[in-house]
Amino acid sequence: MGNQSLARLYMENLDVRVTSMGYNQVWTDWRELDYTPDFNKFYLICDGEGWLKIGDSEFRPKPGQWFLMPHGVKQSYSYTSGPRYTKYWCHFTARIGDRNLFDLIQTPLYVDTKNDSEAIRLFRELLDSDAAASISGPLLVKSAMLRLVSYYIEHAVSSEVSLHRSTEPEPLEQVISYIQSSYRHNLTITDLAEKAHLHPNYFIRVFKRQFGISPIQYIKKRRLEEAKLLLVTTNLPLSEIGDRIGISDISYLSRIFKESTGFSPTAYRMTFNSHQTVSP
Q1: Is there a smaller number of Cβ atoms within 10 Å at the N or the C end of the chain?
Q2: Domain 3-156, CATH homologous superfamily name and number
Q3: Are 21 and 89 in contact, with CB atoms under 8 Å apart?
Q4: What H or E segment, with its residue span, contains residue 155?
Q5: pLDDT by residue (tens digit) across 72-128?
Q6: Element housing 256 (H / E)
Q7: CATH class, range 169-273
Q8: Taking Cα atoms as reference points, which of 125, 37, 132, 133 lies closest to residue 88?
Q9: What is the pTM of this model?
């Protein structure tokens, strides 16, 4: 499985939570040395001077630079003798299963927004969402945070994404590749666990911790993706599509297809193949 596909799988199962946020000039005692947070931080520098240390790297961020200070990395920050920073900032978690997104995807520690107004607009949107008194306020905050993470990744990562390698992914990536090539067949947890050389129960936990989705959910997702493709690119009957994706029970296929897409297979084909409007 390529890095791009694996990164997209991570993104599909990303869960973000914002713990605090703001826009302000830092205090005169803005200084902390050698601490390790259990959350990520974004700083978008608007004005002023200061100093950051992230891991072994030291920075004197300039206006327009957007910094990521990752969870679990030793860091320091301090004011300097010049004008104090004014910045947008937020503290947040970004998890796939129980893994931090930035432990999985390699990104630089800052991007230069070149004073892009869109970056400021996204931080303002986050603050405005937090101030919303409506019942949907928490959803607005989560949506705004996802847009911030998306902006940062899109501007920080080249067209070919790089992933951090841990001690676990290699056998799991082999399992993902096996599912991609063999989802048409009857796949069992025992078979997949053997591919990863793990006990079945432990395999399920490790798979979900790594990808944020269970092996069975991933197999079903892959099969439904292929069913959607065949519905809009061929005239095959549903029974043959079922055989091709490893689901021979047409009633079951129709049910899980509608649960996933909101369309019956027939309505999906009519809507996306012949450009007819069908109400889901």
Answers
A1: C
A2: Regulatory protein AraC (2.60.120.280)
A3: yes
A4: helix 137-156
A5: 999 999 999 999 999 999 999 999 877 889 988 888 999 999 889 999 999 999 999
A6: helix 250-261
A7: mainly alpha
A8: 125
A9: 0.73
